[in-house]
Design a protein that fits this description.
four-stranded mixed β-sheet; globular; alpha+beta
Length: 140
């Protein structure tokens, strides 16, 4: 095999690999009626969560969820409601990751989509919000 033929074959293999990668990349902006409903639910809830992020009561976790970071930052009378908001938010996040994977025709991608979103949520967090890195809370 000549050097030139080997280069052509190598280039063809690279091209096919990159085409497969592009075709395999998830459309994170996929939108179905179910995804739209989940996003609406999350946007409505975000109005209630925003002050808790700012107060340091909750933060973003490494796995694309949220968690109560400091329950003491919330009056005792509001802690149950906060726990409910966190539970509902995390349930919607799980559903969102699943539905985006399904919309892409690859339900097995749910974990990778969740991981990608985890990084996106942290990148988009406002200054002063907390997020987890290597299991520790960090203030952005």
């Amino acid at each position: 095999m000549t050097k030139q033929l080997m280069m052509v074959l190598f280039s063809a293999v690279l091209l096919m690999s990159s085409m497969q990668f592009v075709q395999a990349a998830a459309d994170l902006e996929a939108n179905t009626p179910v995804i739209s409903a989940i996003k609406t639910s999350m946007q409505t809830r975000h109005v209630q969560l925003q002050s808790h992020y700012s107060a340091g009561a909750i933060g973003l976790t490494e796995d694309g969820m949220i968690a109560v970071k400091d329950a003491g930052a919330v009056p005792l009378s509001q802690r149950g409601a906060l726990a409910g908001l966190v539970k509902d938010e995390n349930a919607d996040r799980v559903r969102l990751y699943k539905e985006i994977a399904v919309a892409n025709g690859h339900p097995e991608w749910q974990g990778e989509i969740q991981s990608t979103f985890a990084g996106r949520w942290i990148d988009k967090a406002q200054a002063g919000w907390f997020y987890q890195r290597a299991g520790a809370w960090v203030k952005k």
